[in-house]
């Protein structure tokens, strides 16, 4: 079973509490692998190293990418315990550029940066600022939102424009967000963002919706 613990592209859709634990229990019982695609949700963004940790769940396999390259190089990874990965033997699976030394060095450095927990803590603390700021905007152009850590899907009143239009208005004001479907935008600031910058971005969103 391959799922995103929180669906990114769909608009930061967060499952009900107990869902991930339920998937773990079901897959264990049925003897099938639970693969968590943490390419967007992983590496500190939600306040935990992996989003599955929110329910203390350990999947059989985790997919990582995007932030793994530290914004510098494209790199992704498939992570699993030996018993699972060892079904592939040397020579059975190849990739021309997979595992290139520069990308591997950057990925290793990113993993080391996460060892202290500092970035996870930043995401959790600033995530509260993000949530409070968005809560203030509900009814003022924001219909609703979902957030965990430094990650939010924000449903804009469709009368104010599509997600794409709102994203472009924000871009002109210096705030980069990504539209998803309909009038939903996705906020995923770098984990290095300062509290001041985050508050500034929320003020810009308020202005753009006003
Ligand atoms: C970007 C993305 C992918 C694709 O990752 P690649 O490294 O381009 O293969 C897969 N799943 C999710 C959730 C993504 O956001």
What do you see in this structure?
The chain has 210 residues and is an alpha/beta fold. It folds into two domains: 2-114, Type I PLP-dependent aspartate aminotransferase-like (Major domain) (Aspartate Aminotransferase, domain 2), CATH 3.40.640; 118-209, Aspartate Aminotransferase, domain 1, CATH 3.90.1150.10. The chain has six helices and eight strands; from the N terminus they run E-H-E-E-E-H-H-H-E-E-H-E-E-H. The strands form two sheets. A four-stranded mixed sheet has the order 1-2-3-4. The chain has a four-stranded antiparallel sheet with strand order 5-6-8-7, with helices on one face. The protein is globular, with a radius of gyration of 19 Å. The termini are far apart. The site of pyridoxal-5'-phosphate has 8 residues, from loops. Residues 4, 8, 37, 39-40, 65-66, 76 line the site of pyridoxal-5'-phosphate.
- General shape: globular
The third-level CATH topology of the largest domain is: Aspartate Aminotransferase, domain 2
Biggest sheet descriptor: 4 strands, mixed
The radius of gyration computed from the alpha-carbon positions, rounded to a whole number of angstroms, is 19 Å
SSE run = EHEEEHHHEEHEEH
Number of spatially distinct domains:
2
Task: Let me know the CATH homologous superfamily of the largest domain.
Answer: Type I PLP-dependent aspartate aminotransferase-like (Major domain)
Class computed from helices, strands and strand pairing:
alpha/beta
Helix content: 25-40%
**Fraction of residues in β-strands:** 5-15%
Mean pLDDT, as a whole number?
96
What are the bound molecules? pyridoxal-5'-phosphate
Question: Which CATH C-level class of the largest domain is it?
Answer: Alpha Beta
DSSP summary, beta strand count: 8
Q: Give the N-terminus to C-terminus distance in angstroms.
A: 43 Å
Strand order within the widest beta sheet: 1-2-3-4
Low-confidence stretches: none
In the CATH hierarchy, what is the architecture of the largest domain at level 2?
3-Layer(aba) Sandwich
How many helix segments?
Answer: 6
